[in-house]
């Protein structure tokens, strides 16, 4: 059996490809590209939420938010580790992010203006992430799929705590409910954009499906998310900002309006409300931590020398 | 959502993997967790740390945040040695001997469970 045949047989049998296996160069590159962007998203995703740690309304909410942000850092680590099994260095991937040569999910280029946004992020952004990540637990690359299993377990807490924040606000004063509605108004469309371009405009999708890196198309996942989320918005008594949204009895799904694709591409290309701030903050944190990384290495070397003597 | 990277019109889909970075990275460690007493340690992931002490602390913070571990091991990734997956698969296939399996022996029902 040639390496190509062996690879194809493993993928066809729904087995996993592992790091030491031969794999097509395109498969490896596609995975690095995707896993790196996924890892960068987890890490940059700490910023919009970190923005509210000092201003969380109670000590309990502050503790929850810190735990959640810590989870995001952990998710970044699982994912960078998965990328490293493909022969890239984590520091290199971060450097590429800092230089603007790698992307992260555009959703994190929107600002968190109110406390309700922390609720909306958990409910909608993490909800959308779960929809995608559940699919990725069945990805053909073992380390990526295993990382997803761990991440999905933790995301469930993220989504539930977010929805609970909105439940409380919606049961509160009229100002609190208005804050929740305003948040949904601003996060709904960017959340739908998270699923990426229409299937017809999606550059890599077909090959990724064939390799079983991706198992469900962008539009199908987006529909799944809408169907799941509309009843949850109804329960909160909030109105989804889409006049075309209605149940389609025949399809058994919700119909919904068209995404503003100009906005989508604008933010992808770097012109969202927060793109520059996010990277500037990330680079600053990395640079300011340089002395810690170097000192830790120097300390380790010194200790090793002492114990060898 | 998708983590596929959208390629904007006019952009290249090629990805850069290296920046010729010269700074030294912390070494990599593999992490093994015993979820509870009575079972083996299982590989759970990896991380970077300057030494074994920091590796253990980081492993505890990253991999056992939800009461997942009764014990933790860390091993330098460079100390892990493995067969080539093709070689081991061929070895296993060539050594398949059905007479090693309990199910290849017929014992009359009257004898009872064996």
How would you explain this protein's 3D organization?
The complex is a heterodimer of chains A (309) and B (114). Chain A is an all-alpha fold and 309 residues long. Helices cover 68% and strands 2% of the residues of chain A. Chain A contains 13 helices and two strands. In chain A, strands 1-2 form a two-stranded antiparallel ribbon. By secondary structure, chain B is an alpha+beta fold. A three-stranded antiparallel sheet of chain B has the order 2-1-3, with helices on one face. The termini of chain B are far apart. The interface between A and B is large, with 69 and 36 residues.
Low-confidence segments of chain A, ≥5 residues, pLDDT <50?
Answer: none
Outline of chain A: globular
Mean pLDDT of chain A: 95
The largest beta-sheet of chain A arranges its strands as: 1-2
- H/E element sequence of chain A: HHHHHHHHHHEEHHH
Number of helices of chain A: 13
Average of per-residue pLDDT values of chain B:
87
Q: How many beta-strand segments of chain B?
A: 3
Query: End-to-end span of chain B in angstroms?
Result: 53 Å
Tell me the number of helical segments of chain B per DSSP (H or I, 4 or more residues long). Answer: 2
Largest interface: A-B, 69 and 36 residues
Radius of gyration of chain A: 21 Å
Radius of gyration of chain B: 24 Å
Question: Count the strands of chain A?
Answer: 2
Proportion of residues in β-strands of chain B: 15-25%
General shape of chain B: extended
Keywords, separated by commas or semicolons:
heterodimer, A: 309 residues, mainly alpha, 13 helices, globular, B: 114 residues, alpha+beta, 3-stranded antiparallel sheet
């Amino acid at each position: 059996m040639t390496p190509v045949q062996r690879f194809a047989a493993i993928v066809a049998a729904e087995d996993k490809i592992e790091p030491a296996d031969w794999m097509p160069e395109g498969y490896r590159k596609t995975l690095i590209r995707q896993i790196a962007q996924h890892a960068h998203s987890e890490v940059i995703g700490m910023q919009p939420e970190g923005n509210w740690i000092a201003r969380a309304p109670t000590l309990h909410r502050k503790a929850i938010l810190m735990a959640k942000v810590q989870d995001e850092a952990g998710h970044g680590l699982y994912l960078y580790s998965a990328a490293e099994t493909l022969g890239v260095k984590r520091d290199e991937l971060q450097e590429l992010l800092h230089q603007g040569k790698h992307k992260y999910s555009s959703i994190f280029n929107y600002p968190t203006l109110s406390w309700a946004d922390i609720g909306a992020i958990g409910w909608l952004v993490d909800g959308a992430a779960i929809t995608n990540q559940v699919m990725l637990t069945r990805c053909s690359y073992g380390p990526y799929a295993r990382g997803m299993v761990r991440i999905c377990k933790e995301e469930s807490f993220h989504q539930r705590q977010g929805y609970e924040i909105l439940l409380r606000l919606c049961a509160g004063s009229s100002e609190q409910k208005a804050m929740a509605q305003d948040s949904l108004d601003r996060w709904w469309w960017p959340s739908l954009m998270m699923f990426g371009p229409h299937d017809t405009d999606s550059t890599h999708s077909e090959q990724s499906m064939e390799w079983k890196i991706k198992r469900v198309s962008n539009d199908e996942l987006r529909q799944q998310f809408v169907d799941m989320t509309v009843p949850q918005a109804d329960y909160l008594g909030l109105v989804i900002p889409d006049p075309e949204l209605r149940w389609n009895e025949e399809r058994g799904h919700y119909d919904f309006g068209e995404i503003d694709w100009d906005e989508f591409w604008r933010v992808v290309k770097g012109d969202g409300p927060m793109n520059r701030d996010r990277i500037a903050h990330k680079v600053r944190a990395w640079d300011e931590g340089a002395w810690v990384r170097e000192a830790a290495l120097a300390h380790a070397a010194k200790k090793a020398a002492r114990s060898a003597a | 959502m998708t983590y596929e990277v959208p390629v904007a019109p006019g952009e290249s889909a090629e990805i850069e993997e290296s920046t010729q970075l010269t700074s030294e990275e912390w070494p990599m460690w593999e992490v093994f967790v015993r979820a509870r007493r009575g079972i083996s340690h299982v590989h759970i992931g990896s991380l970077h740390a300057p030494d074994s002490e920091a590796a253990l602390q980081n492993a505890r913070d990253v991999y056992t945040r939800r009461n997942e571990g009764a014990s933790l091991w860390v091993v330098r990734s460079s100390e892990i040695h493995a067969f080539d997956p093709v070689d081991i698969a061929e070895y296993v296939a060539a050594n398949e001997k059905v007479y090693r399996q309990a199910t290849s022996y017929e014992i009359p029902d009257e004898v009872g469970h064996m």
